[in-house]
Amino acid sequence: MYSTSYLLLQATTAVAIGDALGVPVQFKDRAELLNKPLDQMIGHGFFDLPKGTWSDDTSLTLAALSSLSFGFNMHDMMMRFAQWYDFGQYTPFGRAFDIGRTTQAAILRFKHGTEPTKCGGNKESDNGNGALMRMMPLAFYMLSQNTPYKFNSVTANLCEQYTSITHRHPRALIASAIMANVTATIILNPNKYAMLRAIREVLEYYRNIPSFAGEIRLFEKFDDPNHYRTENGEVRSSGYVIDTLDSVFWCLMNSEKYNSAVKKAVNMGNDSDTIASITSMLSSMLYAPVSFPHEWLNALKGRTQIKWIVAMALQTEYF
Fold first, then answer.
1. Does 117 count as an annotated binding residue?
2. Does 69 count as an annotated binding residue?
3. Which of 243, 246, 290, 309 is close enough to 236 for a disulfide, judged by CB 3.0 to 4.6 Å?
4. Within-domain flag for 319
């Protein structure tokens, strides 16, 4: 295992790189991207922003990392999300954009006095990937606070509280637990089959809890290696948590190095920024050590802000 300082900076930078690569091609059709694949940082696109600009995926990750640097306090975390939403903190240019509907509604509930862990949407339509995109800081936090690490009721409860501030449906809670456990497992044991075992651990845990048991069937394919023999065109890349997990894991299982995994993710189209952001984060640790392409890294906005937030976190007892 590489040092926490190395992996945390690398993973956080990777979140931003994947995000920035995906932002300009967000909502594009996959057929168009496969005909002319994206392999470099570009600007503009749907939001008409300079190349290297990252979106809510990175902003919420940075806000969560900043909050966890002071301990596990969901009121503090929601305050930081509100500061991002209202004032553009944790952004390259002081302006929040690409805010998910469920996350936006949760922040507004918090501002009107709702308890943080009750702010998340709990309808079936609230199963977007807005919590999934910010699970990496929690994985590092759990590793530092639960040694030796294993997925159990303690870690599951942390994942549920952390997710519930924006997404409370059982499906979203399971998806977030899978992402957190996969991330923590790859940090400790960077190989694809450990990743599949991490998925299975979460499913076995929630299968025995009545309020979650009915959701398990939707996730069972993810710990089966044969599932990832699916052709690219059959994998959906929407912001729905099941589709996002499918796209991310498909890109990882069908790649042998960092660059190829990220390029596959960016060119999935549709919710390309989140899929590329999560894929970039996981593959940066799965294939560690990696060297980010200079043209990607040099174009990335807000690098000083990213380094500063990571450095502050590493000075605390929580990372």
1. no
2. no
3. 243
4. no
For residue 153, the SS3 value is helix
- Whether residue 170 is contained in a domain is answered as yes
The two three-digit tokens of residue 123, written as one number: 């309808």
pLDDT at 196 over 90: yes
Residues 6 or more apart from 293 whose CB is under 8 A from it? 259
CATH of the domain at 160: 1.10.4080.10
What confidence tens digit (pLDDT) does each residue in 30-88 have?
A: 888 888 889 899 988 778 899 999 999 999 999 999 999 999 999 999 999 999 999 99
CB 247 within 8 A of CB 133: no
48 annotated as belonging to a binding site for a ligand: no
Structural domain boundaries, residue 49: 4-314
pLDDT per position as a tens digit, 202-233: 999 999 999 999 999 999 999 999 999 999 88
In a domain, 228, yes or no: yes
Please give the torsion angle defined by the CA atoms of residues 113, 118, 120 and 121, in that order, rounded to the nearest 10 degrees.
-100
**Has 55 been labeled as part of a binding site?**
yes
Count Cβ atoms within 10 A of the Cβ of residue 166 and give its class: 0-12 exposed, 13-18 middle, 19 or more buried: buried
Closest CA to 97 of 142, 52, 132, 48: 48
Residue 153, in any domain of the structure: yes
Give the separation between CA 69 and CA 57, rounded to whole angstroms: 19
Task: Using alpha carbons, list the distances in angstroms from residue 45 to 29, 49, 278.
Answer: 13, 7, 20
Count the domains in the chain.
Answer: 1
